[in-house]
Amino acid sequence: MQPYVNVIGGGLAGSEAAFRLASAGIKVKLWEMRPEKMTAVHQTGNFAELVCSNSLKSEDETTAQGMLKKEMRLLGSLILSCADEARVPAGSALAVDRELFSEIVTDRIRRNHNIEIIRQEVKSLPDDAVTIVATGPLTSDNLARFLQRITGEENLYFYDAVAPSVALESLDLTRIFKASRYGKGTDDYYNCPMNKEEYERFYYELVNADIKEGHEIDKSLFFNACMPIEVMARRGIDTLRYGPMRPVGLKDPRTGENAYAVVQLRQEDKEGKIWGLVGFQTRLRWGEQDRIFRLIPGLENAEFVRYGVMHRNTYINSPSLLYPTLQYRKNPYLLFAGQITGVEGYMESAATGIIAGINAIKIVKGESLFVPEKVTMIGALLDFITSSNNKNFQPINANFGLLPSLPKNIKDKNIRNKAYLNRSLEKLKEYSELFLKRL
Questions:
Q1: Strand partners, 313
Q2: CATH classification of 5-158+313-437, choosing from 3.40.640.10, 3.10.350.10, 3.40.50.10320, 3.50.50.60?
Q3: Are the CB atoms for 278 and 132 separated by under 8 Å?
Q4: Are 212 and 310 in contact (CB under 8 A)?
Q5: How far is Cα 137 from Cα 160, in angstroms, rounded to an integer?
Q6: Cβ atoms within 10 A of the Cβ of 70, count?
Q7: pLDDT tens-place string over residues 58-86
Q8: Distant-in-sequence, close-in-space partners of 204: CB < 8 Å, separation ≥ 6
Q9: β partners of residue 276
Q10: pLDDT (tens digit, 9 = 90+) per residue, 228-286?
Q11: What rounded mean pLDDT belongs to the chain?
């Protein structure tokens, strides 16, 4: 085997894996095709560029996302370390200035003398080096075809949608108010309240809008957590009011009451000049986005700094192809990490990058590989993607439903979730202390 490890893809998972290997003194060749060859949604050649929301989700330790972050921090996550430096206000969520965040990650990667950056598309995989494939949901067509050939499986795919963002200075702040749902954290979200008439007009225009298909789309393949707002709306007139536009926990200070529906805006940059429409992933044509989203109170004259777009996501049939170590079953020197494995979400992707990096180190050193126990959120995710029914495998987010039951039934949700967290951290702590001492 060659005296280095290939990491293919400079996204969240690839960055975690490459940095983990390099920190252990192992030479890494980090392959990233951008900016030589761009994807449909990336805008830069930076590592860990966020192409969807700028939110890394909740840090509340009573949530599944909060638990996952605690585990990742215990394992020395590069991504979370960089996110802390690029943080912007977002209540109990961890949100970042997307440009600053990717610049920080890129700088950390570039400054590591054990990492060689190669700006080139990888079209096939080598046989003479340990290799981690972390090409993400936007894997190039050439590599996707190669993977299809070597796995003997059809690559599964679904379509994902990105939410639009608006400039703060273009909003009518007399019509909107700042608050976080149920008053959790600080008042970091702008909220656009709608009465019934305003909502029904918006709904009617949305469900009758002109949509840019973009691809031959099988609508059954939309992943629920990223379903386009107009697709969701067609499920019924009140679907949005019980989903991304739910008004509960958001009292309008001017009336003291909940509105009929509310659209939330979340800060996306450090200066607070750009705000994203929460839950408004869309594949509407850009002209339709201008017309329909300006029906939202406060957005009548909104300047859209980024429109919603539709793009392809690719992932492999991991239950058929991978061990929980993230090794390919037919070649133990080939590992996969990130969204291509069927985990869904920024943190989930980065977490698998950590595990792939750790196990690549162990392969190089001839040591026993590491699989976090199923009581951890990371371990539960790995178990799901490698042991689910391979006939109907779908992407998954971190959630408490993946975890084994506690020995005792606890009725209080917050207390129960803290018990899940404590059990997890107890299992991970001993390993993390031993492993990180050696880096």
A1: 158
A2: 3.50.50.60
A3: no
A4: yes
A5: 9
A6: 19
A7: 999 999 999 999 999 999 999 999 999 99
A8: none
A9: 165, 266
A10: 999 999 999 999 999 999 999 998 888 888 899 999 999 988 889 989 999 999 989 99
A11: 91
